[in-house]
From TrEMBL:
The keyword Oxidoreductase applies. Keywords: Oxidoreductase. SMART domains: PKS_KR. It comes from the Eukaryota. This is Ketoreductase domain-containing protein. Belongs to the NAD(P)-dependent epimerase/dehydratase family. Dihydroflavonol-4-reductase subfamily. It comes from Penicilliopsis zonata CBS 506.65. The keyword Oxidoreductase applies. Residues 6-156 form the Ketoreductase domain. GO terms for molecular function: oxidoreductase activity, acting on the CH-OH group of donors, NAD or NADP as acceptor.
Length: 350
C-alpha cells in the first residue's frame, strides 16, 4: 500500500476507462484528483465512488485543447495519468474535433506539469493500438504487432474532409503520442513518460450512471450481440476490430506504469489477443443460458473461420508491468452481467 499522501491526477475520470483507472488508484491507497468536462460529469464520478469522498477530488476542465487548460489541475500532484481523449464518429471537422483536441490536450498537460508540478516524476499517457496499427494493410498475415510499430497515417491525410472519422481518430492518437515523445526530447523535463497502448477495450461498466442508450463505443459494440433487439437467427455482427483487452487489465497497467521504475521511457502494448464476435456469441450462449433467446447462433465453434491475420506480442506488459490478462470468457461474461444489471435499472423498450 502506498502512502496516502500520494496524489494522482487522472484526466477523463468520468469515462469508461477513466472510471476503472480512478478505481485502481483509489484501491491501491492513492488520493485521486480527476478532471471532467462539466459539473454533471463530476456528479457521475462521485456517485460511482460514494465512499471515497475524502480521497477523491474532481476539477472541471471544459476544454483541454485550450492553452493552460491543466495549469491548476496539476498543482500539488505527484503523478499524472492523461487518459482524456476525444472520440466521435459524427464530426464536421476532423481537425477541429479530433486532431487538435487530442494533440493539443497532450502537449498542454505536459507543459502544465513542467511549469506547475515539480513533484511529478512520471506522466503516464493513454495512447492506443490505433497509434500502432496500419489499417491500410488490413489483416497483415504473418506480421506481429508490438511496441515497435507506429501507424504511418499523417496529419495532412487525416484532416481531409473525405477521411473517415475512424481513420482521423487513429491519426489523432498517433499524433498525440508523437507529440508527447517529441516534447520529452525537446524540453528535457523533470519527469519521464510512459505510454499505454490498449487494443479495443471491453469489460464491465463501473459508472454509477451508465446508460444503455449512450454506452461507450466498445461497450456498445459488445452489447449489440446480446441486446433485446437481437435474435438467435440474426447474423453474428462482423467485427469492428479483432484485437482486444479487458478494461481492468488496462487500469492495472496504468497504475503499474506509474509505480515501476523500469517502465520509464517505454511504450506498452496492452492486448490479450485476437477474437471474433462468433466467439463472443458462443460464450454468451454457453455461459449465460438466459440470453439464448436473443444472442445470434451463427456458426458455433467456427472461431476465425480460416481467416489468417496478424498476431500480437504483449510480452513487455507482462514482464515489466506484471499484467496477467483476463480471458475472453471472463471479460464477456462479466461485461454481460453488468449489462443485465443496467437493463434491470433502465429497462430497454423494444
Amino acid at each position: 500500500m502506498v502512502s496516502k499522501q500520494k496524489t494522482i491526477l487522472v484526466t477523463g475520470a468520468s469515462g469508461f476507462m477513466g472510471t476503472h483507472i480512478v478505481e485502481e488508484f483509489l484501491s491501491a491507497g492513492y488520493i485521486v484528483r480527476g478532471t471532467v468536462r462539466s459539473e454533471e460529469a463530476a456528479l457521475k464520478v462521485r456517485r460511482t465512488f460514494p465512499d471515497q469522498e475524502s480521497r477523491l477530488d474532481l476539477t472541471i476542465v471544459p476544454d483541454m485543447a485550450q492553452a493552460h487548460a491543466f495549469d491548476e489541475a496539476v498543482k500539488d500532484v505527484h503523478g499524472v495519468v492523461h487518459n482524456a481523449s476525444p472520440f466521435h464518429t459524427q464530426v464536421q471537422s476532423n481537425e477541429r474535433e479530433l486532431l487538435r483536441p487530442s494533440i493539443d490536450g497532450t502537449t498542454n498537460i505536459l507543459s502544465a506539469v513542467q511549469a506547475h508540478a515539480p513533484d511529478v516524476k512520471r506522466v503516464v499517457l493513454t495512447s492506443s493500438f490505433a497509434a500502432m496499427v496500419d489499417m491500410s494493410l488490413g489483416n497483415r498475415p504473418g506480421h506481429v504487432y508490438s511496441e515497435k510499430d507506429w501507424n504511418p497515417i499523417t496529419y495532412q491525410q487525416a484532416k481531409k474532409a473525405l477521411t473517415p472519422p475512424v481513420l482521423a481518430y487513429t491519426a489523432a492518437k498517433t499524433g498525440a503520442e508523437h507529440a508527447a515523445w517529441d516534447f520529452m526530447q525537446a524540453s528535457y523535463p523533470h519527469f519521464d513518460l510512459v505510454t499505454i497502448l490498449p487494443a479495443m477495450v471491453y469489460g464491465p461498466n463501473r459508472n454509477a450512471t451508465a446508460n444503455l442508450a449512450s454506452l461507450n463505443t466498445s461497450s456498445a459494440d459488445l452489447y449489440r450481440i446480446m441486446s433485446p433487439e437481437s435474435k438467435p437467427d440474426d447474423p453474428v455482427p462482423p467485427n469492428v476490430l479483432y484485437s482486444w483487452v479487458d478494461v481492468r487489465d488496462v487500469a492495472f497497467a496504468h497504475r503499474r506504469a506509474f509505480e515501476v521504475p523500469e517502465a520509464g521511457g517505454n511504450r506498452f502494448f496492452l492486448c490479450e489477443g485476437n477474437f471474433t464476435n462468433q466467439q463472443v456469441a458462443d460464450i454468451l450462449r454457453d455461459k449465460l443460458p438466459e440470453l439464448r433467446s436473443r444472442v445470434p447462433v451463427g456458426t458455433p465453434g467456427s472461431g476465425f473461420e480460416g481467416v489468417d491475420m496478424y498476431k500480437i506480442d504483449h510480452s513487455r506488459s507482462e514482464k515489466v508491468l506484471g499484467v496477467k490478462y483476463h480471458s475472453l470468457e471472463q471479460t464477456v461474461v462479466d461485461s454481460a452481467k453488468a449489462f443485465l444489471q443496467l437493463e434491470q435499472r433502465m429497462p430497454v423498450v423494444v
